[in-house]
From TrEMBL, chain A:
<protein>
    <submittedName>
        <fullName>Uncharacterized protein</fullName>
    </submittedName>
</protein>
TrEMBL record, chain B:
<keyword id="KW-0067">ATP-binding</keyword>
<keyword id="KW-0436">Ligase</keyword>
<dbReference type="GO" id="GO:0005524">
    <property type="term" value="F:ATP binding"/>
</dbReference>
<keyword id="KW-0479">Metal-binding</keyword>
<dbReference type="GO" id="GO:0046872">
    <property type="term" value="F:metal ion binding"/>
</dbReference>
<dbReference type="GO" id="GO:0016874">
    <property type="term" value="F:ligase activity"/>
</dbReference>
<feature type="domain" description="Glutathionylspermidine synthase pre-ATP-grasp-like">
    <location>
        <begin position="60"/>
        <end position="402"/>
    </location>
</feature>
<dbReference type="Pfam" id="PF03738">
    <property type="entry name" value="GSP_synth"/>
</dbReference>
<keyword id="KW-0460">Magnesium</keyword>
Length: 266, 417
């Protein structure tokens, strides 16, 4: 399979949200790639993501949303903030439930990188053919790597620092989402009850523009809960600034840089 | 102070126009090619696509005119650099970083050039063609100026790209490196914003059979002025260095990094050589009158430029401000396009350190009617070793070019159709 074919399956020409697919990992694939049979989709996708969202939609009082009758919550955008290739696999599985997975991985996949992306790239290749036939009007499922900020990782000199964060400009605006019929957005996470710091201002902005924010966890069974996101308090904003300060963001918007040696003079 | 003469003859007609928009499917495939094969990874920013789905069409006579102007400007720029190199007082006036002033002392031999590339940003104004600045130190945009017009020209018979700046640059680099070793392409390990440019050039060099390595300044060691690469993956002597690392950033590097031979005393040729830092300063026009070099073309084309202390920018919106070392238009400032708080902050910064800034008269760019509405075009003309080599086209809604501009292929029409 050609690299272009893989990208085409993830970013179909006529799909509303294809323009937001980040090309970096696809550009680093070989010209020809050999997909392997993808693993079976995680068995809990239906139980822990789709069903809770559907239940929430069904429970929404009549008349609150003009799109209330949309099947299976298709007026809902997803943000899958899951570790590594899990996000790709869950995103592909959600394709069968009417969502268009939109990879937002934006880091240089250097072999010696702090964050390892080979498995994510393999998953993108393996899952590509399963995406054929998704409606071009499907709501988006944005795919993020929960490891992106490298929290807790040891940074060694000489390694390639490809930690990253997301910005509002990586997503469509709330206006564009609304125009596409999106009325709510569900943040899907594992082992985390709160949005990552870089996602918070994005979710706040969407919420302020009338998009309902939900929270779903993949590690526990439970309902989709309405998330009231608030602008970060000053100390949280300062903490987030420090978190981002050390990240190597480039003018092209991608992330990656060799960690320099410490000066010998100390 | 520099006072520009009449730019050019008043325009009789706009020599530039927007072509028709590509069919959606065709543009989609063009975008995909740019993203996957041409190192263009920043096409989508929010709801905006940073590639124009239409070309800018320039007639052949106008292209020849701009190419000639760019070559003249290159010649004049190089002459100015040579003079300022040995005049510390002028280096201070143009706000050259102090670390560089210490390097460019009397008798210090400048490191040879592997190639010299510049990009002059032309604007078609109500007074004819004007130049807003030269990107003399680390001009980028090679893939947008090479692959985008080449791909777009395939859809518009009777047109051609203005040139191939990538090929011209790679030719020059290979000629400089010869068989002396690998080529190292340096970009900043901190912000690393120029990696896609470096990766693009490295691949083109490898396609031509050269050993090209992307690295950072701390991977370079100098022995007797000769550069060697020291990294976990690859090492050995270097035949040439591509410095895609802005001159003013070097002094911030750890003291263990030996970067001075990139500027003076080095024997491995560098592109661009460190001397380019002299003409990168937007304050260069302030010392024109003290140079022996003839700068007639610059005087014709650059808007009047003054030290902020000598310009009424605080009360007259006919002036813009920019920092001496302004990159991608990030500090170009016009009051009507800023919030009151932004303007007050800027005014304070300029008032506290006016010698790091410059005030320049605004010009009025003639808007183009394009398929996406009226846009202001900028035609960036490259020269490589003094010869015009291609064009980087951008369009914007704002009256200045910055990182939010949309890249547009510039195509040369063989006839005036």
């Amino acid at each position: 399979m050609k690299r272009e074919d893989v990208h085409h399956l993830w970013a179909p020409r006529d799909a509303t949200f294809s323009p937001w697919v980040k090309p970096v990992l696809f550009a680093h694939l070989g010209e020809e790639v050999a997909p392997k049979p993808p693993p079976a989709p995680p068995p809990w996708v239906e139980e822990r993501i789709v069903a809770p969202l559907h239940a929430h939609v069904q429970a929404t009082p009549a008349g609150e949303h003009p799109y209330r009758s949309a099947p299976r919550g298709l007026d809902t955008a997803l943000i899958l903030d899951l570790p590594g290739a899990a996000g790709v696999r869950v995103g592909a599985a959600l394709g069968r439930h009417g969502f268009l997975p939109v990879p937002l991985y934006n880091a240089i996949p250097a072999p010696e990188g702090v964050i390892e992306y080979a498995e994510v790239m393999e998953a993108l290749v393996d899952a590509a053919e399963s995406l054929a036939g998704i409606s071009p009007d499907a709501p988006p499922a944005f795919l993020l790597d929960q490891r992106r900020m490298g929290t807790g990782l040891l940074l060694k000199a000489g390694r390639f620092d490809n930690r990253s964060v997301v910005f509002a400009g990586d997503f469509p605006s709330a206006k564009t989402l609304s125009r596409a019929g999106v009325r709510r957005a569900a943040l899907v996470q594992r082992e985390s009850a709160r949005p990552a710091g870089d996602l918070l201002p994005i979710l706040v902005s969407w919420q302020e523009h009338g998009i309902e924010i939900l929270h779903v966890r993949t590690d526990v069974n439970g309902p989709a809960e309405v998330l009231r996101v608030a602008r970060p308090a000053l100390f949280e904003a300062i903490g987030a600034w420090f978190d981002r300060m050390g990240l190597h963001r480039r003018r092209d918007g991608t992330f990656g840089g060799v960690i320099p040696e410490s000066p010998s003079g100390g | 102070m520099s006072r520009a003469a009449q730019a050019e003859d008043p325009p009789r007609c706009v020599p530039l126009r927007a072509g028709p928009v590509l069919e959606r499917a065709a543009f989609h495939e063009l975008r995909r090619t740019m993203e996957l094969s041409c190192f263009k990874w920043d096409v989508q920013v929010g709801d905006t696509t940073a590639l124009a789905p239409f070309p800018l069409l320039l007639d052949a006579a106008t292209w020849a005119h701009l190419a000639d102007l760019a070559e003249r400007l290159t010649h004049e720029t190089l002459a100015a650099e040579q003079e300022i190199l040995h005049r510390p007082a002028l280096q201070r006036r143009i706000s050259l970083p102090r670390a560089h002033q210490r390097l460019f002392g009397p008798g210090a031999p400048p490191t040879p050039a592997a190639a010299r590339v510049m990009r002059f940003d032309f604007h078609f104004t109500t007074e004819g063609w004007r130049v807003s600045e030269v990107n003399s130190d680390v001009p980028g945009g090679y893939t947008e100026a090479t692959h985008l017009p080449a791909l777009m020209a395939g859809f518009f018979p009777g047109t051609r790209a203005a040139g191939d700046p990538t090929k011209h640059l790679v030719d020059a680099l290979l000629g400089a490196a010869q068989d002396l070793g690998s080529l190292a392409l340096l970009s900043a390990p901190g912000f690393m914003e120029d990696h896609q440019v470096i990766a693009h050039l490295a691949r083109e060099l490898r396609d031509r059979g050269a050993a090209a390595v992307c690295a950072s300044p701390d991977h370079i060691r100098f022995h007797d002025g000769r550069a060697h690469l020291v990294s976990a993956q690859q090492g050995g002597p270097l035949g040439a260095i591509v410095r895609f690392y802005q001159a003013e950033w070097f002094p911030r590097l750890p003291s263990a990094v030996d970067w001075a031979p990139l500027f003076v005393g080095g024997r491995t040729p560098v592109c661009n050589p460190g001397i380019a830092a002299l003409s990168e300063s937007k304050r260069l026009p302030l010392v024109w009158d003290e140079l022996g070099a003839r700068l007639d073309t610059w005087r014709r084309l650059l808007p009047e430029t003054r030290d902020p202390r000598d310009a009424p920018w605080a009360r007259d919106d006919g002036w813009i401000l920019k920092s001496a070392y302004c990159n991608t238009g990030d500090t170009v400032s016009m009051r009507p396009h800023m919030t009151p708080l932004q303007w007050a902050t800027l005014a304070l910064r300029v008032s506290l350190a006016p010698s790091g800034w410059v005030a320049q008269r605004r010009f009025v760019t003639v808007p183009l009617e394009t398929p996406i509405g009226p846009r202001l075009p900028c035609i960036g003309v490259y020269t490589v070793d003094g010869r015009a080599a291609g064009v980087y086209g951008r369009v914007t809604e704002k009256p200045f070019i910055d990182g939010a501009a949309t890249d547009a292929a510039v195509l040369i029409t063989e006839t005036d159709a």
